[in-house]
Amino acid sequence: MVKVLVLGATGKQGGATARALLSLGHGVRAWVRDASAAAAVALAAQGAELFVGGGWEAAGAPAELARAAAGVDGVFFVSAPSFTDLGAERRGAAHVVAAARASPSVRHFVYSSVGGVDRYEELAGWDASAFSTAYWVSKAETEALVRGAGFDYYTILRPAEFMSNYTDAASARFQVAGLLATGTLRTPMPADFVAGLVDPADIGRAAAAAFADPARLGRALETPLVAELRTVARILADLGAAAGGKTFRVSTYAPDEARARAPGDPFVAGQLARLNAGRLVDGDDAIVAQVRERFGLTFRSFPEHLAAHRDEVVELYKDAP
Ligand SMILES: NC(=O)c1ccc[n+]([C@@H]2O[C@H](COP(=O)([O-])OP(=O)(O)OC[C@H]3O[C@@H](n4cnc5c(N)ncnc54)[C@H](OP(=O)(O)O)[C@@H]3O)[C@@H](O)[C@H]2O)c1
After folding, report:
1. What is the pLDDT of residue 135?
2. Residue 81 alpha carbon, nearest atom of ligand 1
3. Which helix (H) or strand (E) holds 264?
4. Can you tell me the distance from the alpha carbon of 144 to that of 162, in angstroms, rounded to the nearest whole number?
5. What region, left, alpha or beta, does residue 10 occupy, with left being phi > 0 and alpha being psi -120 to 50 degrees?
6. 57 Cα to the center of ligand 1, angstroms
7. DSSP letter (8 states) at residue 4
8. pLDDT (average), residues 47-62
9. What angle do helix axes 88-102 and 61-69 make, rounded to 10 degrees?
């Protein structure tokens, strides 16, 4: 059994990783910014030790991170972009990786990045806005820090689009706000675009599997994390059915319109890069099969994810026509 410091533990990926580790009998020290937040209280109830710290990018973070990383075998890290401080993600990542490396007990570092980052400069539109540029560069630089730090084991997970973008209320209000209000998704993607999807719960299971078996899943493993490929039209049809038999539509921006919107709309900027990369970001059927085999896990399909979140979906889309 290992003990893991989980950063981002009150969020989707970190929370899933903490729960997956605990369910396998491993120990979890969860970094939280507010111990009274519902997610933190739930983690403590499930058996996690809470470590209350601040922002990873803050001046006081190195000392806090050194204390948090003391005595643990591994560190799970998922960084998050800031809309107001475009350098924050990189500064925070540098603090986290340095503290983990300086801790004599830490042997394994798992970083969850994003699909396509290994070839982001080939994604036409990756630099569509200052935010978009910082997004890709921050993640690529964090990967480079992890790769070069000299950990005994490291694993870089590159997840595809989260299924929860359509089902988690906070995510959906950002990712698919128009769909919630109008029943139509405005996107740079055509209806037949094939998107890769993954349930964040499965990212947590994959991360836990890596910590449990570093010799197999931690020897400088850098891997896409995609559960399935599905067209945008199918995603919306499945979602509409789960929302109570609604018919959701896709309305595709003309290429010039998408490029014009991207600087002021991070959602459009992100999708523009994915669109132009096609399967470079999400992979093909062979990669999906390879990922399943690598982790030895049965990942959830989108309909399975929707079934697991049926009540939330019905509530979330109740006003959509
Ligand atoms: N959505 C997608 O389709 C998708 C696909 C691939 C990759 N990603 C990447 O996934 C990442 C987000 O992961 P997620 O969805 O699991 O995040 P999330 O649910 O938004 O949770 C973020 C977690 O990180 C913590 N956190 C954020 N900024 C922090 C900071 N500066 N210092 C300390 N703690 C901080 C939050 O703590 P609090 O609870 O205290 O706020 C929370 O625990 C992003 O980097 C995104 O690019 C997203």
Report:
1. 96
2. 45
3. none
4. 24
5. alpha
6. 14
7. E
8. 98
9. 40
Closest C-alpha to 311, from 243, 235, 240, 236:
243
- As a whole number of angstroms, the distance between CA 161 and CA 212 comes to 25
Q: 80 in the Ramachandran plot: left (φ > 0), alpha (ψ -120 to 50) or beta?
A: beta
Token pair 């992979």: residue: 283
Residue nearest to ligand 1 atom 19, measured at CA: 11
For position 314, what pLDDT does the model report? Answer: 98
Q: In Å, how far are 56, 208, 240 from 310, measured between CA atoms?
A: 35, 26, 11
Ligand 1 surroundings by CB, under 6 angstroms: 8-14, 33-34, 55-57, 78-81, 92, 114, 159, 161-162, 165
Are the C-beta atoms of 72 and 108 separated by less than 8 Å?
no
Q: Are residues 159 and 225 in contact, defined by beta-carbon separation less than 8 angstroms?
A: yes
Residues 6+ apart with CB under 8 A from 148: none
275: confidence class by pLDDT, cuts 50, 70, 90: confident
pLDDT digits 0-9 by tens, 111-159: 999 999 999 999 988 999 999 999 999 999 999 999 999 999 999 999 9
- How far apart CA 127 and CA 269 sit, in angstroms, is 8
Residue 117 DSSP label: G
| Ligand 1 atom, smallest distance to 162 CA | 3
Query: For residue 11, how far is its CA from the centre of ligand 1 (angstroms)?
Result: 6
Determine how many CB atoms are found less than 10 A away from the CB of residue 29. 21
pLDDT tens column, 72-86: 999 999 999 999 999
Looking at residue 280, what is its pLDDT? Answer: 85
Backbone angles phi, psi at 122, to 5 degrees: -90, -5
Q: What angle do CA 173, 113, 316 make, to 5 degrees?
A: 20
